[in-house]
C-alpha cells in the first residue's frame, strides 16, 4: 500500500511526501496534496477544488499550480472555485460567475480582466479595493505592547500597537501568526515575557481574562471557532456579552439592531440561524459579537478569508471605522495586497519569531523575501 | 517542494491505548492475586481461572458487537432485549428435542440479525441518533417480551446444554467461541474493506462520504453483527440456564456494562478509534474484579460501587493521556528548535 | 438588510409550532382531547389536577435532564440520585418531624455534590459524560443497596410525605405547585445569560470558550441543576411511593425520552426547556390513553419506544426545514461517478 501511494504521489509531482505519516502530522499544504492524491487515485475524470488555496501561503500555492497543470496535462478537467482572482486568471481557461445562487455568466478567461470580473461578481463597479485612511488620523496611546513574550509556539515577541492603528501581521503558513494572536488573547497563554494592555501590565491566562481586559479575537475558522451555527443571529451577536458581561445584556440587545444595520447584514431576521447565512454575512455576525463588548484591541486572523469581494470591502470599512474610534487592530493575513493595503505598519513573522517591520509602501516581494528568509532580506528591512 | 515536505521533528512513540489496557489488566491481576492470597485463599487455580473465563464469555460477546457499533460512531442500547429474545426463541424451538438445536440456533441468530438491521436502518435511513434508535427498539422488544412471556419459556435439550459445561484444556467452550468471534471481528476490522470503512465512517461520516464511502452500509452491517453477537450471548445463557427467560438480558445489564467494557478497552465513545483486542482486555478487567470480589465475599452491593469507580478512573486515565497537544516549537529556558 | 418588518406574534407562534419543540404541545393537546373523548370524567378539574400531580416527578426530572442534554451531555445518574435521596429521606428523617428541614438540606447538599462530581469528571477529567454518569449511577446504586440491603426500609414521617401527596387547601396538590415553580424557574434560567451560554456551549464548545465562557463552570452547573431536579423528584416520590431502593429506577431514560420528545437534540444546542416538561406530560397522557383503551400496561415500553423513534425521525426532518430560508441552496449532492470533490477545510482546526 505504501509503495502504491508513493507511486501515486510521484505521478502528481510530489515524490518526497512520506506515505506512512499520519495525516494529522502534515502541514495544511501537504494535507491538501493528500486530498488531491485521493481524488486522482479514484481515477477521477473531473476534480472540483473548492478554495484549495484558502489555507495555503503564497509559495505553497505555486506547488498547487504545478499539480493542477500536471493534472490538466493528463486530461483531467478541473472545476476550480476561488475567491482569489489572480489564481482564477492564472489557472483557468473558462470562468463562470455565480451570484446569490444564480449563474451570472460564463466567459473565456481571455475575454475578462480583473475589473470586469469584479463588476460581474459585485453587480456594480468598485472604485477601490481598500477604503482610504482617515486624513487626520494620528496614532494614539499604546494600546497593546509585548516585550520578549513567548510560549511553546512563538518566541521573543516584542511589538506595540497604538490606538487607532492597524498593524498587519504577515508570514508564511506555519510562521506562527495564528499562534501569536491566540497567545495574546489568552487561548494559549504566554509563558514568558511581559504584556501590557492600555498601559496596564496583564498577561491573559484564558480567553475570558483576555475579553475582560478589552481584547477581541476574530478567528480564521469562522464556522468551527467563531460562531454557534445552529443558534440565531441575535443569540450569536449577544454571545460574548452574555458569556462575560451578563449584566450588560439588556443594553447590548437594545443596540443590536442598529449595529447590524451599520454592518449592512443581510438576513431574514434576528431569529435566523447563522448557518444559513453567506460567509460574508456570517463574518458580519462575528464582528457584531465583538463590537457588542466594545473592545480596545481587536485581533483579526484572516478576517476576509472565504468571503466575496463586496463583503470584504464591508469588513475593511468596519476596520477603518473602529480605528477612527480609537480601537487598535492587529491583523494577520495571508493576502499580501490586503496586508499592505490596510495596515499602517506590517510585521513579518518567520518560524515563530518576528523578523522585521515594513512600511505599507513596501512591495509584496519585500514582504515575501522577509517571510521566506531570503538572503539579504533582513538587511533590507 | 522540499521546503514544504521538510524534515519534521521525530515524535516519541507512545504506548498504544490497547497496551495501557493490558497493563491495567496485569495490575488488576497482580493486585487481585495479592489480596486473595492475603485472605488465605488460592487465586491461580484452574477452577478459579475457568470461573473468570466463564464470567468473561457472555459480556465478551456483547462487548465485541458493541465495539463494532461504537467504532462506526453509533451505540446499541437494545442488546439486553436481543439477548432475552434469542434465549426465548432458541428455547422455544429447541423444546421439541435435539432435532430443534440447529433450527433453534439459526432462528435465534436470524431474528437477532434482523433486529440489528432494523437498528441500523433507523440510524442511517431515518437519521435518528443511535442512542435513541436503539433505546426505542429495545423498549419495543421489551414490551413484547413483557407481554407475551411470564417466567421461563421452552427448554434446551441436554445435548445443547453440554456447550455451557464443556471445558477444553481448562478453558470453557463458551469462552473459546467468544475468542473466536473476537478474532473474526478483528479480522473484519483490520483486513477488510468494510472494516476500513467502519473506522472511516465513525471518524467522520462527512469526510467518508466525500471520499466515496457508502456511509450507510457499514453502520447497518455493524448493527446487524452486534445484535447477532448478542443473540449468541443469549444462546449461551440458554445453554447454561436450560430455559429461555424474557428478563435474562436486562438483569445482566448488558447494555451499559458492554458499553463500559468497550470504553474501558480504550475505544473512543465518539467513534473512529478502537480495537477488539482492547475490548477483550476491558471485559477481562471486569471479570477479574467480579471474581475477586466474589472470592473475597465482598458485599455484592459494594461491587457496583467499585465497578463504577474503576470505569471512571480508567477512562479518565485514557482521556488524560490522549489529550492531543501539538509539540511545542519553543521550550522555556532552552534555545529554540529550528 | 435585516427584514425590518418583525413578524407578528401570531406568525411567530405558528412558525414556533412547526419546530419539534413546538409540535410537542400540539401532541399534548391532541392526546388530551383523545383521553377526554374516551373518558369524559378526565376533564373534571379534580381528575386533571391529580393527573398532573402524578406526572410532576417525571416532568421535573425531564426539566433537569434538559439542561444537561442541551449542553451536549447525558446524565445517566438521575435515577440513582432519586433512589439515593429516597433512602436518605427514609433513614435521616425517619419518624422525627424535627429532622425534616435538616433532612431536606442534606438531600439538596448531596444533590449538589453529585452534580459537581459529574460535572468535574466530564469537564476536567474529560471522561465522556455517558461514562462518568454511568459510573456515578453504579456507585450510587451500589451504595444505596449496601445501606438498605436491597429491601424497603422505614418510611419518613407523614408530614414529610405530605409534600408528595398533600394539597394546598386540599385543592391544589403540592406536586403541581412545585412543578409550576420549577417550570417557571427553568424558563427564567434559560432566558438568562447563563441559559443562553449553555445553549452556545452545547452548539460549539470551542466557539463558546473563545467567547470567554467558563466551560467547566457552565457545564458543571448544568449537571448540578440536573441532580437537584432529581432530588426534588425524589422528595415528591417518597410521598406516594414510599422508601424502596428501586424507586427512581429507569428515570434517566424516561427523562431523556421526554426531553427528546420535547424536540431537544442529543448533542446539544437545540431545544426549549418547557417542551421537555410537555414531553414528559405527553408520555404520561399516552400511557393513560392506553390504559383507558384497555391495553395491557406491559405494552407501555413498546409504545414509548415507537413514539421516541418516530418523534426524533420527524424532528430531524422538521429542524432541518423549519428555519431554512426559502430559496433552497443546491444540496451538496455527490457528483456522478468519476468526479471527486476537495472540500475547503482539510483539517478540523480544533487543535487548541
CATH homologous superfamily of the largest domain in chain A, by name? Answer: P-loop containing nucleotide triphosphate hydrolases
What shape does the CA trace of chain A take? globular
Helix content of chain B: 55-70%
N-to-C SSE string of chain B, H for helix and E for strand: HHHHHHEEHHHHHHHH
Beta-strand portion of chain A reads 15-25%
Major interchain interface with per-chain residue totals: A-C, 71 and 47 residues
Oligomeric assembly: heterotrimer
Our measurement of the CA-to-CA distance between the termini of chain B, rounded to an integer number of angstroms, reads 18 Å
Structural class of chain A: alpha/beta
> What value does the Rg of chain B take, in angstroms?
22 Å
Percent of residues of chain A in helical segments? 25-40%
Side-by-side strand order of the widest sheet of chain B:
1-2
Overall CATH architecture of the largest domain in chain A: 3-Layer(aba) Sandwich
Q: Could you state the order of secondary-structure elements of chain A as H and E?
A: HHEHEHEEHEEEHEEHEHHHHHEHEHEEHH
CATH C-level class of the largest domain in chain A is Alpha Beta
* Strand residue percentage of chain B: under 5%
CATH fold naming of the largest domain in chain A: Rossmann fold
Q: Point out poorly predicted stretches of chain A.
A: 375-381
- Global Rg of chain A: 22 Å
Largest beta-sheet details of chain B: 2 strands, antiparallel
Briefly summarize what is shown.
The complex is a heterotrimer of chains A (381), B (338) and C (352). With 381 residues, chain A is of the alpha/beta class.
3D structure, described in words:
The complex is a heterotrimer of chains A (381), B (338) and C (352). Chain A is built from 16 helices and 14 strands. Chain A is an alpha/beta fold and 381 residues long. Chain A is globular. Chain A starts with a helix and ends with a helix. Residues 375-381 of chain A have low confidence and may be disordered. In chain B, α3 (79-94) runs antiparallel to α4 (101-125), α4 (101-125) packs antiparallel against α5 (130-148) and α7 crosses α8 (193-203). The longest helix of chain B has 26 residues, at 46-71. With 352 residues, chain C is an all-alpha fold. Chain C has helices at 9-17, 20-38, 45-70, 78-93, 100-123, 129-148, 158-165, 174-191, 193-203, 205-210, 215-241, 251-261, 273-292, 300-322, and strands at 167-168, 172-173, 339-342. In chain C, α3 (45-70) runs parallel beside α8 (174-191) and α12 runs parallel beside α14 (300-322). Chain C is globular and about 55 Å long. Chains in contact: A-B, A-C, B-C. The interface between A and C is large, with 71 and 47 residues. β1 of chain A pairs parallel with β3 of chain C, so a sheet runs across the interface.
Amino acid at each position: 500500500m505504501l509503495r502504491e501511494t508513493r507511486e501515486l504521489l510521484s505521478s502528481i509531482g510530489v515524490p518526497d511526501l512520506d506515505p506512512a505519516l499520519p495525516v494529522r502530522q502534515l502541514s495544511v499544504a501537504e494535507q491538501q496534496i493528500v486530498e488531491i492524491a485521493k481524488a486522482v487515485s479514484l481515477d477521477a475524470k473531473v476534480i472540483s477544488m473548492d478554495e484549495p488555496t484558502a489555507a495555503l501561503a503564497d509559495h505553497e500555492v505555486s506547488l498547487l499550480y504545478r499539480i493542477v497543470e500536471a493534472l490538466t496535462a493528463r486530461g483531467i478537467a478541473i472545476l476550480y472555485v476561488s475567491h482569489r482572482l489572480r489564481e482564477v486568471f492564472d489557472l483557468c481557461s473558462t470562468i463562470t460567475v455565480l451570484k446569490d445562487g444564480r449563474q451570472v455568466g460564463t466567459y473565456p478567461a481571455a475575454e475578462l480582466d480583473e475589473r470586469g470580473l469584479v463588476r460581474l461578481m459585485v453587480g456594480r463597479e468598485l472604485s477601490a479595493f481598500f477604503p482610504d485612511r482617515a486624513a487626520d488620523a494620528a496614532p494614539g496611546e499604546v494600546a497593546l505592547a509585548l516585550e520578549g513574550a513567548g510560549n511553546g509556539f512563538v518566541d521573543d515577541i516584542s511589538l506595540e500597537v497604538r490606538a487607532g492603528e492597524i498593524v498587519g501581521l504577515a508570514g508564511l503558513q506555519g510562521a506562527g501568526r495564528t499562534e501569536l494572536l491566540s497567545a495574546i488573547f489568552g487561548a494559549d497563554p504566554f509563558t514568558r515575557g511581559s504584556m501590557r494592555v492600555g498601559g496596564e501590565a496583564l498577561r491573559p491566562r484564558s480567553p475570558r481574562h483576555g475579553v475582560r481586559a478589552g481584547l477581541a479575537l476574530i478567528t480564521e475558522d469562522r464556522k468551527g471557532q467563531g460562531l454557534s451555527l445552529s443558534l440565531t443571529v441575535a443569540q450569536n451577536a449577544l454571545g460574548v456579552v452574555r458569556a462575560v458581561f451578563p449584566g450588560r445584556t439588556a443594553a447590548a440587545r437594545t443596540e443590536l439592531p442598529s449595529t447590524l444595520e451599520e454592518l449592512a447584514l443581510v438576513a431574514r431576521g434576528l431569529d435566523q440561524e447563522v448557518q444559513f447565512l453567506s460567509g460574508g454575512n456570517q463574518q458580519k455576525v462575528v464582528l457584531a459579537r465583538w463590537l457588542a463588548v466594545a473592545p480596545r484591541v481587536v485581533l483579526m486572523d484572516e478576517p476576509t478569508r472565504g468571503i466575496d469581494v463586496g463583503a470584504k470591502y464591508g469588513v475593511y470599512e468596519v476596520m477603518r471605522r473602529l480605528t477612527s474610534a480609537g480601537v487598535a487592530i492587529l491583523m494577520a493575513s495571508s493576502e499580501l495586497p490586503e496586508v499592505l493595503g490596510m495596515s499602517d505598519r506590517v510585521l513579518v513573522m518567520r518560524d515563530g519569531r518576528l523578523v522585521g517591520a515594513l512600511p505599507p509602501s513596501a512591495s509584496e516581494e519585500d514582504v515575501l523575501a522577509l517571510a521566506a528568509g531570503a538572503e539579504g532580506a533582513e538587511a533590507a528591512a | 517542494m522540499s521546503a514544504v515536505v521538510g524534515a519534521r521533528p521525530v515524535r516519541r512513540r507512545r504506548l498504544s491505548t490497547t497496551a495501557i489496557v493490558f497493563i491495567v489488566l496485569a495490575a488488576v491481576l497482580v493486585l487481585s492475586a495479592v489480596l486473595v492470597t492475603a485472605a488465605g485463599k488460592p487465586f491461580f487455580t484452574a477452577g478459579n481461572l475457568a470461573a473468570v473465563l466463564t464470567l468473561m464469555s457472555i459480556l465478551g460477546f456483547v462487548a465485541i458487537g458493541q465495539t463494532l457499533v461504537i467504532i462506526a460512531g453509533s451505540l446499541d442500547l437494545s442488546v439486553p432485549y436481543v439477548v432475552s429474545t434469542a434465549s426465548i426463541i432458541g428455547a422455544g424451538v429447541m423444546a421439541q428435542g435435539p432435532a430443534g438445536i440447529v433450527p433453534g440456533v439459526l432462528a435465534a441468530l436470524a431474528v437477532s440479525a434482523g433486529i440489528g438491521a432494523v437498528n441500523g436502518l433507523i440510524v442511517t435511513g431515518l437519521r435518528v441518533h443511535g442512542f435513541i434508535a436503539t433505546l426505542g427498539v429495545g423498549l419495543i422488544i421489551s414490551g413484547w417480551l413483557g407481554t407475551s412471556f411470564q417466567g421461563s419459556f421452552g427448554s434446551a435439550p441436554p445435548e445443547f446444554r453440554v456447550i455451557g459445561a464443556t471445558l477444553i484444556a481448562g478453558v470453557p467452550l463458551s469462552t473459546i467461541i467468544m475468542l473466536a468471534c473476537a478474532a473474526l471481528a478483528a479480522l473484519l476490522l483490520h483486513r477488510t474493506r468494510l472494516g476500513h470503512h467502519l473506522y472511516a465512517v465513525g471518524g467522520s461520516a462527512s469526510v467518508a462520504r466525500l471520499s466515496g464511502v457508502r456511509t450507510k452500509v457499514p453502520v447497518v452491517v455493524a448493527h446487524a453483527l452486534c445484535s447477532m453477537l448478542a443473540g449468541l450471548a443469549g444462546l449461551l445463557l440458554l445453554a447454561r440456564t436450560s430455559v429461555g427467560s424474557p428478563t435474562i438480558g436486562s438483569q445482566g445489564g448488558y447494555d451499559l456494562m458492554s458499553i463500559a467494557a468497550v470504553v474501558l478497552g480504550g475505544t473512543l465513545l465518539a467513534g473512529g478509534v478502537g480495537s477488539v483486542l482492547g475490548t477483550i482486555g476491558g471485559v477481562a478487567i471486569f471479570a477479574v474484579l467480579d471474581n475477586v470480589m466474589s472470592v473475597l465475599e465482598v458485599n455484592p452491593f459494594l461491587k457496583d460501587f467499585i465497578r463504577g469507580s474503576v470505569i471512571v478512573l480508567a477512562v479518565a486515565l485514557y482521556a488524560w493521556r490522549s489529550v492531543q497537544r501539538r509539540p511545542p516549537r519553543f521550550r522555556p529556558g532552552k534555545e529554540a528548535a529550528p | 438588510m435585516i427584514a425590518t418588518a418583525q413578524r407578528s406574534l401570531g406568525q411567530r407562534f405558528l412558525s414556533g409550532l412547526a419546530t419539534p419543540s413546538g409540535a410537542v404541545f400540539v401532541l399534548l393537546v391532541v392526546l388530551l382531547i383523545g383521553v377526554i373523548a374516551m373518558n369524559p370524567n378526565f376533564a373534571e378539574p379534580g381528575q386533571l389536577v391529580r393527573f398532573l400531580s402524578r406526572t410532576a416527578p417525571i416532568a421535573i426530572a425531564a426539566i433537569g435532564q434538559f439542561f444537561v442534554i442541551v449542553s451536549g451531555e447525558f446524565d445517566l445518574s438521575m435515577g440513582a440520585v432519586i433512589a439515593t435521596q429516597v433512602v436518605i429521606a427514609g433513614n435521616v428523617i425517619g419518624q422525627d418531624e424535627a429532622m425534616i428541614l435538616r433532612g431536606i438540606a442534606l438531600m439538596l447538599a448531596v444533590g449538589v455534590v453529585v452534580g459537581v462530581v459529574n460535572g468535574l469528571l466530564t469537564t476536567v477529567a474529560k471522561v465522556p459524560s455517558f461514562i462518568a454518569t454511568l459510573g456515578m449511577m453504579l456507585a450510587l446504586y451500589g451504595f444505596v443497596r449496601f445501606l438498605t440491603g436491597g429491601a424497603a426500609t422505614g418510611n419518613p414521617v407523614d408530614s414529610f410525605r405530605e409534600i408528595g401527596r398533600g394539597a394546598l387547601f386540599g385543592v391544589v396538590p403540592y406536586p403541581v405547585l412545585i412543578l409550576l415553580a420549577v417550570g417557571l424557574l427553568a424558563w427564567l434560567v434559560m432566558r438568562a445569560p447563563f441559559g443562553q451560554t449553555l445553549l452556545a456551549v452545547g452548539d460549539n464548545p470551542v466557539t463558546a470558550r473563545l467567547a470567554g465562557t467558563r466551560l467547566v463552570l457552565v457545564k458543571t452547573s448544568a449537571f448540578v441543576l440536573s441532580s437537584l431536579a432529581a432530588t426534588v423528584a425524589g422528595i415528591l416520590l417518597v410521598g406516594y411511593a414510599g422508601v424502596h431502593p428501586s424507586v427512581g429506577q429507569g428515570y434517566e431514560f424516561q427523562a431523556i425520552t421526554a426531553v427528546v420528545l420535547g424536540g431537544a437534540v442529543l448533542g446539544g444546542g437545540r431545544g426549549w426547556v418547557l417542551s421537555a416538561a410537555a414531553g414528559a406530560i405527553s408520555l404520561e397522557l399516552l400511557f393513560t390513553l392506553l390504559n383507558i383503551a384497555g391495553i395491557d400496561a406491559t405494552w407501555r415500553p413498546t409504545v414509548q419506544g415507537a413514539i421516541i423513534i418516530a418523534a426524533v425521525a420527524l424532528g430531524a426532518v422538521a429542524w432541518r426545514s423549519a428555519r431554512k430560508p426559502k430559496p433552497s441552496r443546491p444540496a451538496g449532492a455527490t457528483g456522478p461517478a468519476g468526479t471527486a470533490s476537495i472540500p475547503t477545510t482539510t483539517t478540523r482546526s480544533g487543535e487548541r
